[in-house]
């Protein structure tokens, strides 16, 4: 064997997927339209908010606020994002365990944008044979125009995709105007161009290679498969019979004729291979490249319908079902994921619904830890941080309790008006009269921070140490 | 053998790849010399292409102007610092504080938050070396700024004056004027003033010296011994000891000795607060004044 014959690199074979009609194609198109309507139009949706931006969805990084309709998320609530990500991860495990690569086949943005780019390609260059002919042919006027138009449209979509992504982070109408006038910040141009470029490369050029070679999810979803997981598969027994598949030919036209000779139902038309966006032959069994888009099911169903033979030669099934056993949908793994999913979702919803309208923390100032006053009393100082999380003003009152004889001095800021979404640090001094003895490590004072006007909420109580030095001074 | 062939193939590829990277790095290094400042050449050096702009104050004219410098990390730092001080929000707050009176600043939560934040840095840079990071001072040497006892006054105007003009603490040495037992009596009396000890025959003798012409202490400390802020004379009746470290002493004898020591030696050229009017801008002095004022609990 020569050295040249072994290579670690496989050159890409261009795939020319043929179009197909059917229920799964319709489902995919439906999801695609819905997803694009949401993605491209959502940043333009306005939402009336007093004292805050009026964009329905706005991730305001400089202002450290996320606006999602009536929900305003502050930076300290960012752990909700972790919750959402955990829920998405478990949802992926849960769904994949039961129904296989549903995410890959129907929802993944790589699948959606590749699908859109293929639609554009087909609209400009024609069906599979036309595209193949065009690629093989010389660079003439027709090829130049068609290829140019395809790439141009792709670039346009890619650019708008990038721009739309950027719109979620700033006021959309302002951004578009600024972009055109050249006033937008550098980050906006960079984000837009970077996403435009990746969209163009991933959906236009790389396509199935992203799923096959780049995507980690594609690979680890296989680890969640079991014998009951729904897969897109070829019914080998029916298709191959005892003598294998054969094309329709003399004496092999009807099902009865073929079955009499032991020939399977597959007429080897190759339609299922031609429609496959990742370029595999589903009849070779379950393969890691398969994204479960089910277009081969649509293709085979079309052929079976034409022949008036029953559908389901290529079908959604499970390994167990293929082997004549029952498919269990309720299995310990799914129940486990289901329970965790429900718990995580409930926890997140509970956390969002019971969010406090304001926060208040109290920290002891430790330098100096205490001050001896001229009358022999002891003073400790504290820093209070208040944060109004509402888009309306509120008034907050601060008092202390739990320390005998203690007085609070905040230079008149014991009652403070907070602007909408204002956060502020205040200085609080607590003084006790002379004690004439040692304090104990357990000496504490409780700050009660309560809303007085603008909002109804439970007061926040913060217990903090009060330091009394040796001998009370 | 196929296995060997594969290995050989991979090894060859890795070697070629490795060598390629090595030469690429070498080429990059040479390019780097010219892009960024690097080697000395004669009495100059390779200056690189990059430049950094930041504002500097011209020593001669005192005017601030933007200048261009060759790329270096120090220039980058100065540029960043310039950006920080030129932050629009900071400038806006600073202008507000500059325009406001002391009374207005103290009543405004937002301005006070700003003063505490900026003042902490100014205090740390200029004052903390003596008065401590938190303003707690050192007994006997540098006054505690966090309590409510002020040698020179704790009002905003007085703090401002202290900062602008500086202060010089003075108390004559009585060691040569008074006999040792008279010093003992005075110390005894001073201790009774703040309730450390009960009046006695000795303290009564001390009172006579304090209030009479022999000692004449009342000139500065007052007949009521409550001090005189215009002279920086300490209030001797409260619980705070700014100069003699009485609280640190355990026995009455030691407390007395601490006071006696100070009365005998006096204070001369040891307690000096420098004047800041030539070192800090009026705005910085204003910020520090408010900061110190709120440390002391607002009088």
TrEMBL record, chain A:
Gene coding for it: ccoG
Domain of life, per lineage: Bacteria
Entry protein name: Cytochrome c oxidase accessory protein CcoG
Coiled-coil region: none
Annotated ranges, domain 4Fe-4S ferredoxin-type: 257-285
PROSITE patterns found in the cross-reference section: 4FE4S_FER_1, 4FE4S_FER_2
Keyword DNA repair: no
Transmembrane segments: 27-45, 78-109, 151-170, 186-206, 335-353
Protein species of origin: Candidatus Competibacter phosphatis
Entry keyword Lipid biosynthesis: no
UniProt entry keywords in alphabetical sequence: 4Fe-4S, Electron transport, Iron, Iron-sulfur, Membrane, Metal-binding, Transmembrane, Transmembrane helix, Transport
Gene3D superfamilies registered for this protein in UniProt: Alpha-helical ferredoxin, Immunoglobulins
